């Protein structure tokens, strides 16, 4: 008897973009836009039954000094999630992907985050 799949049509399963994937996308853009003077790093781990993804700025010319910008805690279903803004010292619950993207944009483009990035970038004495 040939093996018969009882899973149904697995090819029809929707591809979903995780919160961690959005953070990786932004980490990659930070690295690219700063010529790797600042390198975006995302670390994702299991956090109880949920997940936690940290967005970190790594500074290669400072012995890979690391500065955490934010982290996101989310369940397997992804939403609602909590985003923790470590620079502006705020926490927000996001009920949807759209709210998460808006909150992420607000944090990453904030004056406080830009000040941190400028300060870290300025530490590269060879680029002056």
Concise account of the structure shown:
This protein is α+β, with helices and mostly antiparallel strands and 128 residues long. The chain has helices at 19-33, 97-108, 111-122; strands spanning 39-47, 50-59, 65-74, 81-85, 90-94. The protein has one domain (17-122).
List the helices and strands and how they pair.
Elements: H1 19-33, E1 39-47, E2 50-59, E3 65-74, E4 81-85, E5 90-94, H2 97-108, H3 111-122
Antiparallel strand pairs: 1-2, 2-3, 3-4, 4-5
Distance between the termini: 72 Å
Strand content: 25-35%
- Characterize the overall form: elongated
Instruction: Work out the helicity level.
Output: 25-40%
Beta-strand segment tally: 5
Q: Number of helical runs?
A: 3
Which ranges are low-confidence, i.e. pLDDT below 50, for 5 or more consecutive residues? none
Rg, please?
A: 18 Å
Describe what this molecule looks like in 3D.
The protein has 128 residues and is an alpha+beta fold. It has one domain (17-122). Helices cover 30% and strands 30% of the residues. It is elongated. The chain starts with 18 loop residues before the first helix and ends in a 6-residue tail after the last helix.
